[in-house]
């Protein structure tokens, strides 16, 4: 990682770069753990663990728990397997879990730790762009229920997050793009200047990419600190996710569709929900066009057929943001500013799909 970045002093700190490993080792030196379990998936075991393990300075026994990579494994069955391994290998209330991986590992590992013996300490070490700027921060942990995203989960903060962008060196390009979607979202909902840096992606100085990651984490942290359990402003982070999650679920369950990465689904969701915002008199046409063209320049078009739309609308009913039976959207009022708890008629969603396809 190039530039030294200051720790974000959240309720539980977010450290960058070498400072993260220093803070972790200091924590290990001053807290008596019975043992440490590192949860990884098959890829982070291969690509990230060899870098992470040598940074640990501790005499405590370290065990590695690996599960097969992929969203398809972010389910309760994987949790049961891990809870069993923890039990068999002697984990107790003084065990520390360290999640080294993307959003699947941090979501699932955080949930496993938060529920094992009513909750043990865990630390997130995100290794994808998406988990650095979003999933590892803010204390949402959970798993999918069938094809329904994140239906089972808890709010619970890791005791610290360590973000080291060196892990991105082995991350495939499409996964980098996926993470970019959440960075774009942070700009769109909260910081117009930040968004504007992505309008001409070719002009981005990738030597400064760490600074862009840092700002994204700051935005996410600021929002979740104001509203940790999503009663209010935290709902703004759901921009693009109401339709995005429904699309992601639909593509996940449908054998005729290729599975979408989380960020790919959110990118479409952001275009669709921006169209809804424009139709509701919030965004101007110029703003909408700028959002659509910027996102379309980064992400491939997803093709929707007529028969796809109805089941996607049906999936919205399961969205966790629903309250009292109605579907709630977070819509952009103007770039950098968001309006939560917006009701949207189906007709506007259908029009948004029509425009996306055009
Ligand atoms: N908790 C939250 O607030 C929150 C927010 C956004 C997204 N999420 C969740 O995050 C998940 C998506 O996260 P993701 O995009 O990180 O997916 P992921 O964890 O599946 O990682 C993507 C792929 O990259 C591999 N990988 C990870 N790090 C690597 C590295 N350094 N080098 C090479 N390969 C690597 C993984 O094995 C996986 O195959 C979804 O389940 C989503 O629901 C959670």
Give the topology, please.
Elements: E1 14-16, H1 18-30, E2 35-41, H2 42-47, H3 49-52, E3 62-67, H4 76-88, E4 95-101, H5 103-115, E5 122-126, H6 129-135, E6 140-145, E7 148-155, E8 160-163, H7 173-190, H8 192-196, H9 209-226, H10 241-253, H11 262-279, H12 285-298, H13 306-315, E9 328-334, E10 337-343, H14 346-357
Parallel strand pairs: 1-8, 2-3, 2-4, 4-5, 5-8
Antiparallel strand pairs: 6-7, 9-10
Nicotinamide-adenine-dinucleotide binds next to helix 2, helix 5, helix 6, strand 7 and helix 7.
Helix and strand sequence: EHEHHEHEHEHEEEHHHHHHHEEH
Biggest sheet details: 6 strands, parallel
The molecules bound to the chains, other than polymers, are:
nicotinamide-adenine-dinucleotide
Q: Roughly what fraction of the amino acids lie in strands?
A: 15-25%
- Spatially, the strands of the biggest sheet line up as 1-8-5-4-2-3
Mean pLDDT: 94
How many distinct helices? 14
Provide a brief overview of the structure:
This protein is α/β, with parallel strands linked by helices.
């Amino acid at each position: 990682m190039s530039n030294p970045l200051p720790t974000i002093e959240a309720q539980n700190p977010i450290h960058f770069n070498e400072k993260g490993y220093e803070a972790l080792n200091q924590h290990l030196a001053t807290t008596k753990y019975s043992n440490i379990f590192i949860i990884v998936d098959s890829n982070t075991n291969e690509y990230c663990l060899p870098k992470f393990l040598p940074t640990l300075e501790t005499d405590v026994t370290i065990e590695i728990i690996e599960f097969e990579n992929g969203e398809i494994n972010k389910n309760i069955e994987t949790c049961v397997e891990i809870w069993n391994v923890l039990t068999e290998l002697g984990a107790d209330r003084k065990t520390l879990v360290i999640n080294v991986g993307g959003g699947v590992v941090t979501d699932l590992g955080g949930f496993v730790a938060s529920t094992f013996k009513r909750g043990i300490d865990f630390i997130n070490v995100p290794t994808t762009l998406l988990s650095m700027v979003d999933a590892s921060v803010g204390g949402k942990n959970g798993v999918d229920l069938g094809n329904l995203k994140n239906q089972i989960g808890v709010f619970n903060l890791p005791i610290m997050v360590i973000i080291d962008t060196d892990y991105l060196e082995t991350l495939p390009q499409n996964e980098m793009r996926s993470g970019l979607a959440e960075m774009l979202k942070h700009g769109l909902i909260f910081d117009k200047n930040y968004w504007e840096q992505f309008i001409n992606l070719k002009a981005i100085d990738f030597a400064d990419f760490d600074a862009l990651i840092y700002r994204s984490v700051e935005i996410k942290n600021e929002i979740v600190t104001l509203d940790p359990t999503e009663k209010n402003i935290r709902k703004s982070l759901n921009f693009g996710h109401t339709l995005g999650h429904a699309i992601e679920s639909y593509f996940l369950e449908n054998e005729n569709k290729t599975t979408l990465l989380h960020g790919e689904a959110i990118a479409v969701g952001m275009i669709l929900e921006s169209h809804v915002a424009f139709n509701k008199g919030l965004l101007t046409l110029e703003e909408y066009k700028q959002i659509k063209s910027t996102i379309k320049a980064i992400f491939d078009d997803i093709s929707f057929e007529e028969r796809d739309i109805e089941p996607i609308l049906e999936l919205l009913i399961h969205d966790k943001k629903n309250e009292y039976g109605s579907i709630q959207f977070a819509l952009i009022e103007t770039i950098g500013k968001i309006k939560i708890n917006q009701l949207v008629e189906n007709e506007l969603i259908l029009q948004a799909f029509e425009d996306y396809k055009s």
